[in-house]
Amino acid sequence: MESKSGFMKDTQILSAFQEMPAAPDSRPADAAPLEPALVFDACQTGVVLRAVLFVEVCAGVGVAFGAVSALDWVVRLSLVTGAALPGALAWLLSACLIKRLLAKLVPALQYAVAVTLGALSGLYGCALLGWTGLMVGPPWVASALSGALLSALLVAALVMRSKGRMPAHISARLAELQSRIRPHFLFNTLNSAIALVRAEPAKAEALLEDLSDLFREALKDSGEPVRLAQEIELAQRYLAIEQVRFGERLRVQWALDPAADDAKLPPLLLQPLVENAVRHGVEPCALGADVRISTQRRGSNVVIKVTNTVPNGQGEQGQGLALRNVRERLALLHDVQGQFRSGMKDGVYQVRIEVPL
User: Are 102 and 155 in contact (CB under 8 A)?
Assistant: First the structure.
């Protein structure tokens, strides 16, 4: 966190709005080099599950053309699966192991390597059938062509899914900004700062610095994942602002596990959840509310919880727009490895997020 002593050399509120993102093709001279562009990532659990299901479906449809009965179809599918499944797993394992090398290639070469791996994986599956004696005269050429075709289709599907993430991310980003940067939040914060200027100028300066950092992060045009530690810091800044406004009505508890700090999240994922807790827990209740944020590493996963007490008789928090936004953005980044749950229990509303480390 930046130092809060001395006078501000810049007007940080204005700087947050003046630091607009550069044009898409321009980058600062001191910017970090661009990461290699990977067309498809075979190391993700969701990709593995989809690939295996895709190959099995194709195999089932293919053998159906020659089957004369349901039993014959099952027998044929079992035989083909003996080659298709090991071949698919070999393709996924190979593509995952050479992931870093693939990222250094241009997209066209990545496609070519993927198709070549598919052909080799098809030959590998066919060789297994021939070696076990389950098939006499293995169809080597057909197996290689089938492996190449299936890998090409799978990569094309992954590329289309990756491209489809961009409009979804932009839409989610706009919805998140509209729900987060509300005018009354800005006005309330500025009014709080004005009230503190004469009585406690240092506190007013700290408040404006926190507000500046929040808006600077909100206006960044970057969809790159961020560390959980960064999200925690932004949430702390937001709650520090709201603490000035609500005083003792806002009671915050932190239970943070340093071992979870490196987990990756979409930018500005945690702050809307904390804002929801304040908006629906603290604002409607004259006695305020208890807000608790916790992180914990559990093996190879990280569990994040945001809970708040709610006024008597209040049900679900709002219309769920922010929660749906968070759920969608989490799924875009972590696919099936990211889990999101929310609900009310014993007068406490809880949001639980689980992500891989």
Answer: no
Q: For residues 342 and 349, is the Cβ–Cβ distance under 8 A?
A: yes
In a domain, 28, yes or no: no
d(CA 323, CA 351): 9
pLDDT in tens, 152-198: 888 888 777 666 555 555 555 545 554 444 555 666 667 677 767 77
* Residue 356: C-alpha distances to residues 48, 98, 204 (Å): 16, 21, 39
Strand 301-309 and strand 348-356: the pairing is antiparallel
Which residues face 298 on adjacent strands?
A: 301
Q: Quote the CA–CA distance of 33 and 78 in Å, as a whole number.
A: 49
Domain boundary among the residues 97, 131, 164 is at 164
Residues 159, 161, 162, 168, Cα dihedral to 10°: 150
**Would you say 77 and 60 are in contact if contact means Cβ atoms under 8 Å apart?**
yes
Do 191 and 154 fall within a single domain?
no
pLDDT band of residue 8 (cuts 50, 70, 90) is very low
**Of 304, 322, 324, 315, residue with least CA distance to 343:** 315
| Interatomic CA distance for residues 203 and 240, integer angstroms | 11
The 10s digit of each residue's pLDDT in 211-262 is 777 666 666 655 678 899 989 988 888 888 888 778 889 899 999 999 999 9
d(CA 68, CA 46): 35
Q: In terms of domains, do 212 and 287 share one?
A: yes
d(C-alpha 268, C-alpha 230), whole Å: 9
The domain spanning residue 268 has which CATH number? 3.30.565.10
Tell me which residue has tokens 């006695």.
287
User: Which range of residues forms the domain containing residue 267?
Assistant: 181-356
**What is the rounded CA–CA span in Å between residue 233 and residue 84?**
48
